[in-house]
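Recall from the previous chapter that SMILES is a line notation for molecules. Here it describes adenosine-5'-triphosphate.
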Amino acid sequence: MIGAGELVYEYPGKRALDSVSFLLPAASITALVGPNGAGKTTLLRCIAGLDEPYSGSIEIAGIDVLRHPREAHRHIGYLPDHFGLYAELSTRQCLLHAGRSRGLGGEALDARVVEVATQLGIVDKLDDKAGSLSRGQRQRLAIAQAIVHRPSVLLLDEPASGLDPESRAGLSELMRRLRSEGMTLIVSSHILAELEEYCTGMLVLQQGRVVEHRLLEQQTAQGTGRMIRLRLAQASTRLRELLAPHVSARTPLDADTQKASFEFSGGDDELSALLQSLLAAGLPVCELSVEQASLQDAYLRAVEHDRGGVS
Ligand SMILES: Nc1ncnc2c1ncn2[C@@H]1O[C@H](COP(=O)(O)OP(=O)(O)OP(=O)(O)O)[C@@H](O)[C@H]1O
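With both inputs in hand, we obtain:
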């Protein structure tokens, strides 16, 4: 479990986090998304106990991160967006160093280094210098360093950047496996299509504030979060008015007099009733499609809505 309460973080002259609160369930993967400068890196650094917020609270696995940062560090793995490696050390030495700095040692650490290098597909690079690895291999080594101590929480800032398509697929698979082992992950990325493959929730930050937090698995199970696209054979000024009561409260209705798209929170019976009400009102519906709202849809709507855009 990861909890944040009323977090405020300020750089000189710039409030980067503004009263950020959320609760993420254990064994979940949350996509942390938002425009450039939204505060994602700042939030991850605060959760990792690397930056101290001006006010607020952070709790990880029952530990107050601000009061007990050292204890919290043992439970946290963190991959920064611009990670550094010791170029002159071998992959094995890098992993041993990361393990020792987290309190591991002895034969258990030696075995763990091989295990984690195998998981990340760099076991054949154990004796190569980190500086001689490719960009993608270095990225995988950095992820291996972040999980060598089996943290219960993993924070990844843009983990897929620099990875080839095969490695990205491998990363998705790794995330799912770590989650199935009970790890709680937060992944910041701009590649929403990839996040969709493995994330269980989405936290949208904009200008330092949480503008949306949704649980994607729950949404699928409840059949909510569906996008409806509808078109009339001829325009009708009543379209908006008739649709308005059926639109999910948290997202806007995008409609003119002939076509509309909106998020629908009801089930199949409600959808059937909606269609019947349009036809009963004499609207010439000639097209209606239903699709599961993609992460991209949900994200763009949340950001757009917050800016006071589409309505
Ligand atoms: N060291 C700093 N000094 C002053 N302002 C900073 C500093 N670091 C970040 N900021 C500002 O804080 C805000 C949040 O930055 P942050 O890096 O957390 O955003 P981000 O969402 O991770 O962005 P990106 O998607 O571009 O990586 C931005 O407006 C940024 O300009």
